[in-house]
Amino acid sequence: MEDQFHSQLESKFFEYLLARGYSRDSITFEPRLGTNFRPDFAVNDPSIGLRLAYFEVRGLMDDATRNRSLQQLRRYATEAREVGASFYVVTPAKEPTDTEPFDFLFVNDKSELEALPRELFPTYRSLSSDVIATRKVQVETSRERTKDTFQIVCWVIAVVVIVLGIADFVCDQKTIELVDTTRLTLLGIAVALIVIPFAQKFKILGVEYERLDKARDRDSKS
Fold this sequence. Notes:
21% of the residues are buried. The protein has two domains: 2-122, Trna Endonuclease, Chain: A, domain 1, CATH 3.40.1350; 129-221. The chain has 222 residues and is of the alpha+beta class. Helices cover 54% and strands 15% of the residues.
């Protein structure tokens, strides 16, 4: 990866991440984001297939660069699918030390750039834990919404079946065949086509929740 860097500053930031405990496998240089964007760096959790943070490296930070960087990070946030991912601007420190050569800005909850004290720069474990926790909440919310929708669909199907049963009974008294074998088969197929997507979604969400749970346990033990 090192031979791909465009500047010594990018190379130095890569080494900084390694020194802070980020593994080489977790760092991607100029990852593709959407169809038009390539942030300078992204940090990933390969075990869950999610990106945890994005970084733009800047050689200086004047007002114009700050505004341009903020707009760029906002576009990244719109394109990124990971809820809970963090977005940073990295610049050479105004008062560098041997272990802390960078200053950091991050996009806060108000979508504004805010200075981040060097001592609060996140570890890989904390980034992973935050994204996993946020993603778990999102999955659980999706599961509950799917469950509620499925219950409504089941009630609608039950009402339709009851109405058809009553209508068939009434028609039978008048020797009118309302529901024959073919129509009953088609009705069963229609119900199956409605139910199967819900079952598939429950399965997918369950697998992802379990995967996130295992990743959380891994982080808690590391």
